[in-house]
Design a protein that fits this description.
- α3 (83-94) crosses α4 (99-115), α11 packs parallel to α13 (364-377) and α13 (364-377) packs across α14.
- The strands form two sheets. An eight-stranded mixed beta sheet has the order 1-8-7-3-4-5-6-2. The chain has an eight-stranded parallel barrel with strand order 9-10-11-12-13-14-15-16, surrounded by four helices.
- It contains 21 helices and 16 strands.
- The longest helix is centred in the first third of the chain and has 28 residues, at 36-63.
- The radius of gyration is 26 Å and the shape is globular.
- It has three domains: 2-23 and 146-235, Phosphohistidine domain (Glucose Oxidase, domain 1), CATH 3.50.30; 36-141, PtsI, HPr-binding domain (Enzyme I, Chain A, domain 2, Orthogonal Bundle); 267-425 and 504-572, TIM Barrel.
- It is of the alpha/beta class and 573 residues long.
- The protein binds phosphoenolpyruvate and magnesium ion.
């Protein structure tokens, strides 16, 4: 038996033969040619053909209900219209090179540009450009790529897989996925998550000699066993059955209350980024939306979105999900979420800088546009408003004053609005947590943003991969601030939820319930597992310690938010 280690992307067990997936390798003619017009013509017709393919993949994904992955192909089709990319290829042809040579050089140059960016998300986008390059070369060489996957169900092992290769795979033949390269931010990883295939990346050592051999992919343990012994086969087959039963059982929890054995009810809400997530809120039976990150409405727009554009997005979500409560957080731009048209100064410490509500309070017209859109949308369902990055009471008061000003303006204009709108704040700074008693007098609810609360409490940059070892998401200081915020909220009849990633951490569910949390807002996919967890908990039995929870294993924190980052994020999200 051989064991190969990798990095897990999706937990699961896959059992079957290995199929090594090999994309064709082309030998490109480097000699100069004389008929430049003919090469330009070949380049153009390949470009149009690949663009049509990408549009067809987009349609296919939409038809199959995979809106997120469809966006990848929409972005690819847009990239093939990019003037810089087209011009650079045509320039190379103009120097007397073949269309194939120009595609290799032009697309690899663009991929290199992405690879050299600091942000891992952008770095991962180079794979999208290489994917397009390969599709262009397939067309120019007239290759037949239809049967690379083989004809039997198998665990597919590839060097790396491009999104368009991944989506073309016959799912009925795919047991699991292993790549030697790849990154957890890549679109292939995103696709794998959305398809729920057991997946391992960075499995560097697995060789082509494994082709056709029997194997078990155990991504819970981040490894693949090739020619495993009978003991492992029996153990992991049983685990696979358990997984299937658990998945089927989770579906039965739809419509069931999120209530502990001893009757403690908690509301399980979803975190979303816009109207595209409505379906998954409903599908996963979320009881409401605890965090609509409205900044994605801004990130998805090329220019500052107008009041009407914002109104349309908020109305769609609120109306489609009525009577569920939908809490929309006002624009949380800044730090890692930057937008060109906002023309924000470059800062030394953007996470501690001009961001979120600080921008809104300094740019009143900008803020008012959003508040007016929110108030107008409130007429169509049950809308709540939440302000991010609060540290002081005066900030909340000023937000509320501007909100009231907008309400009066809209009333005078004869616009419909809900009579009562719940107003809350994010507790994501130690300052807010420590002043929670004071702040609670101003609002209907608190929502603990544990991602930032951890960053600011522990002085750990949440973006830094180098700090992984120091980043204790269960740090006693953070848990204590959470507990004290809940207690402070309740002293003032302010309900308290958690909308940071920690809310979905199953090892903390019981502790949060014991603290008295009223709502947990999580990635839609975490709703049913969390409900299961809640329903299995009995608070009348035993008691957890205050701050000594174990660190979550990577398996437990496996369901991650996928959110677009930065400007190119708009293109690829
Ligand atoms: C948080 O900080 O925990 C949070 C939910 O907000 P975001 O992740 O969008 O900063
Ligand atoms: Mg935050």
């Amino acid at each position: 038996m051989q064991v190969y280690k990798g990095t897990k992307i999706v937990n699961g067990i896959a059992i079957g033969k290995i199929k090594i997936y090999k994309a064709p390798v082309y030998e490109i003619n480097e000699e100069l040619v004389s008929d430049i017009a003919a090469e330009i013509e070949r380049f153009e017709s390949a470009r149009v053909k690949v663009q049509e393919e990408q549009n067809a993949l987009y349609d296919k994904e939409i038809k199959e209900g995979h809106k997120d992955t469809a966006g990848i192909f929409e972005a690819h089709a847009m990239m093939l219209d990019d003037d810089d990319l087209i011009d650079s290829c045509k320039e190379i042809i103009g120097e007397g090179h073949t269309a194939e040579y120009a595609v290799r050089e032009g697309f690899e140059g663009a991929a290199e540009m992405f690879r050299n960016m600091d942000d891992p998300y952008f770095q991962a986008r180079s794979a999208d450009v290489i994917d397009l390059k390969n599709s262009m070369l397939d067309v120019l060489f007239g290759a037949d790529t239809a049967n690379l996957q083989g004809t039997e169900p198998a665990i597919l092992v590839a060097e790396d897989l491009a999104p368009s290769e991944t989506v073309k795979l016959d799912k009925s033949l795919l047991l699991g996925l292993v790549t030697r390269l790849g990154s957890s931010n890549s679109h292939t990883a995103i696709l794998a998550r959305s398809m729920n295939w057991p997946t391992l990346i960075q499995c560097h050592d697995i060789s082509d000699e494994c082709d056709g051999k029997f194997a078990i992919l155990d991504s819970y343990n981040s490894c693949i066993y090739v020619e495993p012994d009978q003991y492992l086969i029996d153990e992991l087959t049983a685990k696979q059955h358990e997984d299937r039963e658990r998945e089927a059982k989770l579906q039965e929890l739809k419509g069931k209350p999120s209530e502990t054995k001893d009757g403690y009810k908690v509301r399980l809400y979803a975190n979303i980024g816009g109207p595209k997530d409505i379906e998954s809120v409903i599908e996963n039976d979320a009881e409401g939306v605890g965090l609509f990150r409205s900044e994605f409405v801004y990130l998805n727009s090329k220019t500052d979105p107008t009041e009407d554009e914002q109104f349309a997005a908020y109305k769609k979500v609120v109306e489609s999900l009525a009577p569920r409560l939908v809490i929309i957080r006002t624009c949380d731009i800044g730090a890692d979420k930057t937008i060109d048209y906002m023309k924000l100064d470059k800062e030394e410490n953007p996470a501690l800088g001009f961001r979120a509500v600080r921008i809104c309070l300094n740019r009143r017209e900008f803020f008012k546009r959003q508040l007016r859109a929110l108030l107008r949308a409130s007429a169509f369902g049950n809308l709540g408003i939440m302000f991010p990055m609060i540290i002081s009471r005066w900030e909340v008061q000023e937000c509320k004053e501007i909100l009231e000003m907008c309400r009066k303006e809209l009333q005078a204009e004869g616009k419909a609005m809900a009579e009562k709108i719940e107003v809350g704040i994010m507790i994501e700074t130690p300052a807010a947590a420590l002043c929670a008693d004071d702040l609670a007098e101003e609002v209907d609810f608190f929502s603990l943003g544990t991602n930032d609360l951890t960053q600011y409490t522990c002085a750990i940059d949440r973006q830094s991969a180098n700090l992984e070892r120091f980043a204790d998401t269960h740090h006693p200081a953070v848990l204590r601030l959470i507990r004290e915020t809940i207690e402070a909220g309740h002293r003032h009849n302010t309900w308290v939820g958690i909308c940071g990633e920690l809310g979905a951490d199953p090892t903390l569910t019981e502790e949060f319930l014991r603290m008295g949390v009223d709502e947990l807002s999580v990635n839609p996919k975490s709703i049913l597992p969390l409900r299961d967890n809640v329903r299995k908990t009995d608070l009348s039995q035993g008691k957890t310690t205050e701050t000594k929870s174990p660190k979550p294993s990577a398996a437990q924190s496996e369901v991650k938010e996928e959110k677009p980052k930065g400007l190119f994020g708009r293109l690829f999200s």
